[in-house]
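Protocol step 4 of 6.
Sequence for G-protein coupled receptors family 1 profile domain-containing protein (Owenia fusiformis) entered exactly as in the expression construct, tag removed. Do not edit the line below.
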Amino acid sequence: METSTVITGGAGNTSVQYLNSTMAATTAEVPSVEEFLEYQLGVAMWKYMTLVVIIFGLTGNVLSFLVMKFTSMNKNASSIYLAALAIFDTGVLLVGLGRQWSRNMFAFDIRATHEWACKIHIFFTYMFIDLSAWMLVCVTIDRVILVYLPLKAKSICTRKKTIIVICLVTLFLVGVNCHWFFTVGQRDFTKLIEEVQLTCAFLEGFEEFHQTYWPLIDASVRSFIPFTVLFVSNILIIAQLVRAAIRRKKQMNASTSKTDDATRSMTIMLVMISFLFLSFTSPAVILDIIIQPDITRAPTVAEKASEKLTVAVVNLLMYMNSALNFVMYCLSGKKFRNSLRELLCGKKSTYRKQTNTQSMMTNQSEINSQKNVDRMPDSNQV
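Step 5 output, structure tokens:
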């Protein structure tokens, strides 16, 4: 008696029929993945929360870019980094998160349309995510220079050098991610008893690279190295700002409450950005390291449902990191808020003139204070 197996069914509903010449067809129904609560929550998050994050993030990034380019903040070289960060964060949301929304809302995956669409889309997804992290690193290092070398900062952190740094960082990340053009593509393989063709999969011979080496490389470039630099830089900034505050109190014999508030606000913002960056990006990185891709293995329906929710949560956290920078800027102090008001209302705030006058007086006071401190013997050396 001959028996053959035919696998049929649509998305999320699979049945296996056993056919023979003497018996009627019998069907063993497998539970649909759509019946699991985890799957339903995952799909809802991709459909609706994704759209909220995209709209909120795009609005904030556009406003941030306009503030950095068309207000008084444009005079600072660091505004170039922040403008670039807004552009790269927009790319993260449109290219990366936009694909996830279209997959779940319209069942359209751009990577499945063509082999080269797969290669190009993956390349730019990783590029924008990496560039977003490293622009934050560049901004923080720029602030370290401003804090430790205030008199030389204008000659070190020029607009021309800032553009050169952005170009060098971009070239480095292109080198890191260029492997996507020859390690992924169309591949045929056997899944259970069925021949399957994927337009976007790891090519044969590169499985070990993607399962063993690339997750660690990606984790280091995308999260671990940037966070380490951010953490160390923030410690250096905090230490220098505390020393400067103590020095001012000793020399002026008075507490400059406004300056202290600004210092505390900037310090909190920098530390917050660093820990939010790690908190939002590390789950996705850790998930990539723990879960090893295996395109030849067929997961169970329960595993598919659980994976749908887990991937949705960790990836939305990662993408939210590119949507919340505008909020961080608004919390960072009066300068950005007044520049935003200047952009929206079309009027230059009087705060700018006051700030320029106050900053000149403060800088001169700090220079004189620093000279007096340099002449004083160190208590540890007496």
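Step 6, annotate. The first strand starts at residue 4 and ends at 10.
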